[in-house]
């Protein structure tokens, strides 16, 4: 079955996905950079290695499917500093950074959705 105008609708939806996905990808990248900066500021410093290894990895572009960002340290002990151990209390640096920037991220996504 073919409805008159369905090609135009499909094209419009594809264009909207590209436009919205691209804008959302920009918001995700910007928020990721803010979280990395805040986590580095929050991270406790002994040798500076933990702070130096905090970064992000982004996969996908948001326009043609999903996009994902992973943020954290590559230092193997980063999780123990964040959450603590049986012998040491945690010194959270990453979760507070996420909590600080999540509201702005969600607000930006709502603005993008409102522009549809």
Summarize the structure.
With 116 residues, this protein is mainly α. It has helices spanning 6-42, 49-53, 78-83, 94-114; strands at 54-59, 68-73.
How does this model look, in words?
- The structure is a single chain.
- The protein has four helices and two strands, in the order H-H-E-E-H-H.
- The protein has a two-stranded antiparallel ribbon with strand order 1-2.
- It is mostly helical and 116 residues long.
- It has helices at 6-42, 49-53, 78-83, 94-114; strands at residues 54-59, 68-73.
Strand order of the largest sheet: 1-2
Find the count of extended strands (DSSP E, 2+ residues): 2
The end-to-end distance, rounded to whole angstroms, is: 28 Å
The average pLDDT value, as a whole number, equals: 87
Kindly state the percentage of residues in helix: 55-70%
What percentage of the residues does DSSP assign to strands (E)?
A: 5-15%
Instruction: Compute the number of helices.
Output: 4
Helix/strand order, N-terminal first: HHEEHH
Main sheet properties: 2 strands, antiparallel
Radius of gyration: 19 Å
State the shape.
elongated
Structural class: mainly alpha
